[in-house]
Automatic annotation (TrEMBL):
Name of the protein in question: FAD-binding PCMH-type domain-containing protein
Pfam families associated with the record: FAD-oxidase_C (PF02913), FAD_binding_4 (PF01565)
Cofactors demanded by this protein: FAD
Keywords: FAD, Flavoprotein, Oxidoreductase
Coiled coil: none
């Protein structure tokens, strides 16, 4: 993000849980603040020190502890890179039930700690469901071993859930037990160009109805976001004639167990969509080869990088009702215009993309530079808009340091008070990722 900067002098890279425990115990006794760090791909500054905290990087802990190909249960060190886990599971016909654009560098411990959502949550659900157990070093150095490999374990408080999405404020996740999914035998995708945003919802209904159990992703990209991805060379652009007049795009993925069956369903879907009066889509580009499948995904997965290449991106990762996606983007743009901030390219673009199936919009405001004027025009404006629609100010990226002040837009006072009590119970000295999730 190039937005958050601390003044740490020290990074430690422990090789095993015992070393993490010893470091944390030492820090707790001396009241030294700690920032646990995975792949450092977060977007809200959760893994970046605020002051002079000690950074504990998990990157040296990369052992796969066990995998059972009958149950699909994988147990791995927190520092395993998501892509390496996928590569490990591939010959065993399994996949990690989580997929992100950052898969080449994000780590499973960070994914769990931030409760990362990603591109296939629609199909495989959230980590609150697929994580079966965790090993965590608590802020006093105690190792909490909850690394169970049981599908069912209904024995009182489910402690692991507290650490999923705690962003390292309650302890450091050092090991993860996760339920891998069977690898689909056939995957396909299609990029649909839509004449108007109003068609997204009816399209989603239709796609769900017709593709049913093989639908694995339904991603929304608005026109400006698509154009920026193309400009910055992400994936191969669709033909000019195919995208002419399109207001937005939807990338649909299917994952099933029989190619002919899935292809038949997809082709029938496309025919029905084209024949409908009025047609819900301008056109659909169906991947005809693994290379094209990857290229269509590259457009979607490359959006974040395109925003960064284009300028400084203010990112609002919000949950709002699906039919409000466009309104949120347009209202924000109008607001910045009325403040005179779209003049001289101070703000260059206001774009939206996201996970329709999860009601999660990524509103990106790309500016020439991060400035106090733009920030004060955006906040609390965007958060008030989200609160008005009873949405969430963070659908999947977490709170980090970016949104601690905005927590009350999504959580009531009683909830925040309970969160503070939990934080105090685990970390009475406040050494664990201080200033993240909850304000200092
Ligand atoms: C995505 O869905 C990520 O691509 C990043 O959550 C979102 O760049 C963003 O704002
Ligand atoms: Zn996302």
């Amino acid at each position: 993000m190039n937005k958050y900067h601390g003044r740490s002098t020290t990074v430690l890279r422990p090789r095993n849980t015992k070393e993490v425990s010893e470091i944390v115990k030492h820090c707790n006794e001396r009241r030294i603040g700690i920032v646990p760090q995975g792949g450092n791909t977060g977007l809200v500054g959760g893994s970046v020190p605020i002051k002079d905290e000690l950074v504990i990087s998990l990157g040296n802990m990369t052992n796969i502890r066990s995998f059972d190909d009958a149950s699909g249960i994988l147990v791995a060190d927190a520092g395993c890179i998501l892509q390496s886990l996928s590569d490990y599971l591939a010959p065993h016909d399994h996949i990690v039930p989580l997929d992100l654009g950052a898969k080449g560098s994000c780590q499973i411990g960070g994914n769990v700690s931030t409760n990362a959502g990603g591109l296939r949550l629609l199909r495989y659900g959230s980590l609150h469901g697929s994580v079966l157990g965790l090993e965590v070093v608590l802020p006093d150095g105690t190792i909490l071993d909850q690394l169970t490999t049981l599908r069912k374990d209904n024995t009182g408080y489910d402690l692991k859930q507290l650490f999923i999405g705690a962003e390292g404020t309650l302890g450091i996740v050092t090991g993860v037990s996760i339920l891998a999914a069977s690898a689909p035998q056939a995957s396909n995708n299609v990029m649909l160009a839509l004449p108007t945003f109003d068609n997204v919802l009816p399209l989603y209904r239709e796609v769900k109805r017709q593709l049913s159990e093989i639908l694995s992703a339904f991603e929304f990209i608005d026109r400006r976001a698509y154009d920026l991805a193309v400009k910055h060379g992400q994936g191969r652009a669709l033909n000019e004639s195919d995208v002419e007049g399109a207001e937005c795009f939807v990338l649909v993925e299917t994952s099933g167990s029989k190619r002919e069956h899935d292809e038949e369903k997809l082709n029938t879907l496309l025919e029905n969509l084209m024949e409908a009066e009025p047609s819900l889509i301008n056109t659909g580009v169906l991947a005809s080869s693994p290379a094209q499948f990857a290229s269509l995904w590259a457009i979607r997965e490359g959006l974040t990088e395109s925003m960064s290449k284009e300028g400084k991106a203010y990112k609002y990762d919000i949950s709002v009702p699906l039919h409000k996606f466009k309104e949120v983007i347009d209202t924000t743009r109008d607001h910045l215009q009325s403040k005179g901030l779209m003049r001289d390219d101070a703000v260059k673009h206001v774009v939206g993309y996201g996970h329709v199936g999860d009601g999660n919009l990524h509103l990106n405001v790309v500016a020439d530079a991060y400035t106090p004027e733009i920030e004060s025009a955006l906040e609390p404006f965007v958060y008030e808009l989200v609160a008005k629609y009873k949405g969430s100010i963070s659908a999947e990226h977490g709170i980090g340091v970016m949104k601690t002040h905005a927590l009350p837009y999504s959580k009531n006072a009683v909830s925040i008070e309970v969160m503070k009590r939990i934080k105090h119970l685990f970390d009475p000295n406040g050494i664990m990722n201080p200033g993240k999730v909850l304000e200092l």
